[in-house]
Amino acid sequence: NIFRISADLSHLASIVILLETIRKTRQVDGISLKTQLLYVLVFCTRYLDLLTFRWTSLYNTLMKFFFIGTSIYVIKLMQECKIKNPVAYKDMMARDTFQIKYLLGPSAILAMVFNYKFTILELCWSFSVWLESVAILPQLFMLSRSGKAGTLTTHYIFALGLYRALYIPNWIWRYYTENRFEKLSIFTGLLQTALYSDFFYIYYKKVIKGGGFELP
Amino acid sequence: SQNEVEHDEL
Predict the structure, then answer these.
(1) Which residue intervals of A47-117 are DSSP H helices?
(2) HSE on the CB side for A72, CA within 13 Å?
(3) Contacts A111 to B, Cβ<8 Å
(4) Cα–Cα nearest to A29, from A195, A183, A154
(5) Is B2 on the interface with A (CB under 8 A)?
(6) Distance (Å) from the C-alpha of residue A56 to the closest C-alpha of chain B?
(7) Alpha helices in A47-57 (DSSP H)
(8) DSSP state of A214
């Protein structure tokens, strides 16, 4: 459906914007390495079903490889910046101080409690949706502490937030057309979108209505 | 059923 396609396209756009940000500035200014590492973990645990070869569609399979590949590529680009621009890299690391154990631990526990089946594949899948819902926190934390962000960084976060927000009308659509109600995705998706809500509001006020981007 | 949810979303 239209919402699902738009969501996936905005997810793709967010990654293109992120890669463009790193390429253009040749440094990692404003990007949280911790959030990016969490996304590698999210995609690697979610798409373990690639190994079972029970593929749903060519589209799904290609997108899964794309998300795993680009998330690892981002880490590689950021590590290159460590050599090319060590001062900026150190500056980023000094500001990227969110303790991710507070995201990893609860996500693992929630995955053990809420899952569709107590199998490795399903537990990893559930862990990935819980972790994804909070993976942006180190990035938002970094932004709120520095107070300012580059335009591309804000577009990246916006596109990434929009992706999960668009999944919500997709789930409503699927509930009415397929009677499908996938409670874990829906709950974590709502949580994820809620975490972006402040950001969306500031983005709307500052970026769309003009003016610089500044977080309180 | 809920026990056999197909993860066809990304």
Answers:
(1) 58-84, 86-95, 101-113
(2) 7
(3) none
(4) A154
(5) yes
(6) 6
(7) none
(8) B
Instruction: Identify the pLDDT of residue B6.
Output: 83
- Distance, in Å, from the CA atom of A3 to the CA atom of A136, rounded to the nearest integer, reads 22
* CA A179-A5-A123 angle, 5° bins: 60
**Looking at chain A from residue 57 to 116, which residues have their Cβ under 8 Å from any Cβ of chain B?**
57, 60, 63-64, 67, 116
Token look-up 């975490």 returns A195
Cβ neighbourhood burial of A61 (10 Å; 0-12, 13-18, 19+): middle
Q: Is the pLDDT of residue A185 over 50?
A: yes
Q: How far is B4 from chain A (nearest CA, A)?
A: 7
- Is 90 exceeded by the pLDDT of residue A152? no
Model-level ipTM above the cut of 0.90: no
CA atoms of A51 and A40, how far apart (whole Å): 17
Beta-bridge partners for A148: A214
Mean pLDDT of the region A23-32: 85
Identify which of A160, A129, A166 has the alpha carbon closest to the alpha carbon of residue A4: A166
Q: Is residue A108 packed enough to be buried (19+ CB in 10 Å), middle (13-18) or exposed (0-12)? A: middle
Three-class secondary structure of residue A67 per DSSP: helix
